[in-house]
Task: inverse folding
């Protein structure tokens, strides 16, 4: 075992590796700080994109439910409708232009730009608070409100599609949102 370890270490040439790390060290450090900061903000915006896509998908489910209630009546939808049925009916709803993707796309783009501006503003505010020795809190509040708003929208979409437990969750989320406002 000792011979294998010695052989591996000799082939790695640790001296050259350390010298290579030291080359342009300040630039590498600044670059890593910038990249890690952008990665944090990027991952946060990625999470918001995920929430927004889920909101969009549940809106389509709600529209699918509405389409089938209007087309075949409430009795048919109550008997045959469920989350999986509404998902399966999506292609037909799109084919009959009941779901309009261009309007949804514009709403998505507008929301994501708004969220990006709000997150950036919260990060700037928290950085300012840190500079004067305070405890940053604005980002937590802003990001929590955006996340709660999107979660509430998703649950409202499922509730309007008459999906079981969604009404109870909607009530709880609305109470939490109201308590954060006041």
Result:
């Amino acid at each position: 075992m000792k011979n294998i370890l010695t052989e591996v270490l000799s082939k790695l040439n640790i001296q050259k590796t350390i010298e290579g790390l030291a080359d342009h060290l300040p630039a590498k450090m600044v670059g890593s700080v910038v990249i890690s900061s952008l990665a944090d903000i990027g991952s946060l915006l990625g999470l918001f994109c995920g929430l927004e896509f889920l909101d969009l998908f549940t809106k389509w489910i709600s529209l699918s439910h509405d389409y089938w209630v209007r087309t075949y009546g409430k009795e048919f939808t109550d008997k045959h409708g469920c989350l999986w049925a509404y998902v399966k009916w999506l292609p037909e709803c799109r084919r009959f232009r009941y779901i309009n993707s261009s309007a949804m796309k514009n709403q998505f783009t507008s929301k994501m730009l708004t969220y990006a501006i709000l997150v950036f503003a919260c990060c700037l505010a928290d950085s300012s608070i840190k500079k004067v020795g305070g405890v940053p809190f604005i980002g937590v509040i802003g990001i929590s409100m955006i996340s709660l708003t999107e979660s509430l929208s998703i649950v409202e979409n499922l509730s309007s599609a008459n999906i079981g437990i969604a009404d109870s969750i909607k009530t709880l989320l609305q109470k939490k949102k109201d308590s954060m406002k006041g």
Summary: Residues 141 and 169 are 21 Å apart (CA to CA). The chain has a mean pLDDT of 80. Helices lie at 2-12, 14-22, 25-72, 74-80, 83-95, 101-131, 138-160, 166-181. Residues 25-72 form the longest helix (48 residues).
